[in-house]
Amino acid sequence: MTRRFTPLTNALALLCPSLALLCPSLAHAASGFATPPGDFPERQDEPRPPRDDFEPYAEPPPNDDFEPEESAFRLSTGPVLRATREHADGGFTAAVDIGAKAAGARFAGSWVRTGSDRGLSQYDAQLWLDFGAQQRLHPILAAGAGLARLESNDALGALRGSTLGIGTLRGTLEYVLPIREANARAGLDVEGALPAIRGSNAPDVNGWVLITARVGIGF
Predict the structure, then answer these.
(1) For each of the chain's 219 residues, which pLDDT tens digit applies?
(2) C-alpha distance from residue 64 to each of 49, 67, 68, 91, 204 (Å)
């Protein structure tokens, strides 16, 4: 039986031996190329170290550059203790300070046991000097004058009142509280009062000391 070779059969017969010779050459050539540096690790079986893209949150350092706020108008209030040679009585005080720098004025009122035989209502105005301006601690010296309304019992036991003109001298130590954007202060006052003008029906008193603990805020 005679085989017939078509042109396609002849082409395949020539191509197959050529591919068989070419494949080993391509495999040998591919094995000779080096791995490009930086693209892959030297050993593909070693895992890469994990990458931490998130840094831990660090709190900002504390801000210690606190500067006390200054204000030209301050209100303060607190308890007061009136001390004399015979007695010590408690009460209430309120004050208004005007002045933002090293000098200013204060208008204050104190009320101790009003309506009793040892009642005191004191109103005074003072000029003060601040030796710690723009600092946290404020030593203050003040002097002024005012009026005091004293209450006592007369010979018949009835309650009577008398008014005195007084001179005052005050020493204060104030501390600026660490509250930003507010001139808040805590203070301790020691104030002495001496009668300067006495009426005919005024009781015979030598003077007294007012000790005050205050908290105030500026505007």
Answers:
(1) 445 555 656 655 655 565 555 555 545 555 555 555 555 555 555 666 665 555 555 565 555 556 666 788 999 999 999 999 888 999 999 999 999 889 999 999 999 999 888 899 999 999 999 999 888 999 999 999 999 999 988 777 788 889 999 999 999 999 999 887 788 999 999 999 999 888 777 777 889 999 999 999 998
(2) 41, 9, 12, 38, 54
pTM of the model: 0.67
Q: Strand 184-198 vs strand 159-176: parallel, antiparallel, or unpaired?
A: antiparallel
The CATH number, out of the four listed (1.10.3110.10, 2.40.160.20, 3.30.428.10, 1.10.287.110), of the domain defined by the range 73-198+205-218 = 2.40.160.20
Q: Where are the domains of the chain?
A: 73-198+205-218
